Task: inverse folding
């Protein structure tokens, strides 16, 4: 009977990670985590599908391969930094919502251009794998655009910077320090 009561109390409490350095549940318990997971899958599919095409060595395909691979690497890096709580320890200049917004919009634009070119080539030559890669790229574009809008909302609602909130106090000059009465030689 005591075991059954203990089992019910553990199921009602929130589940926390046993180690303090890693939060693997971040991916599935937050909206940002789900977004990053879907971004990782879509960018991975984008560059894998276009890389499997026999003529993928051409410049118009290599552009999408480069953009999708770079986006995939940065998404995975962001996920790792968030799960290991290292993201919070980064310098404030790297964690600003404005920087995230700019990067997401640039990634969305680059993916849109590359996906449009690959999708158009797939339509022209009737190659289903190029069309599929273009569609995955378009989905990635929408995901990065949505994340950019999320960062724009964060930026608009962010409190003023601490440097602006603190009024510059009178600077302490070296002459304001009291000299010791007896030097300690």
Result:
């Amino acid at each position: 009977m005591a075991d059954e009561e203990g089992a019910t109390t553990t199921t009602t409490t929130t589940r926390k990670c046993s180690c303090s350095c890693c939060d693997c549940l971040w991916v599935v318990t937050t909206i940002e985590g789900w977004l990053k997971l879907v971004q990782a899958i879509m960018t991975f599919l984008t560059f894998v599908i276009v890389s499997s095409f026999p003529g993928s060595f051409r410049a118009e395909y290599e552009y999408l391969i480069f953009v999708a691979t770079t986006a995939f690497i940065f998404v995975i890096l962001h996920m790792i930094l968030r799960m290991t709580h290292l993201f919070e320890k980064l310098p404030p200049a790297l964690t600003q919502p404005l920087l995230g917004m700019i990067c997401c919009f640039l990634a969305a634009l680059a993916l849109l251009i590359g996906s449009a070119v690959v999708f158009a080539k797939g339509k022209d030559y009737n190659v289903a794998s190029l069309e599929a890669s273009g569609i995955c790229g378009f989905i990635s574009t929408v995901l990065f655009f949505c994340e950019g809008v999320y960062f724009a909302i964060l930026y608009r609602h962010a409190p003023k910077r601490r440097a602006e909130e603190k009024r510059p106090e009178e600077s302490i000059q070296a002459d304001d320090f009291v000299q010791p009465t007896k030097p300690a030689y």
Q: What stands out?
A: Residues 128-157 form the longest helix (30 residues). Residues 42 and 136 are 6 Å apart (CA to CA). The chain is about 65% helix and 0% strand.
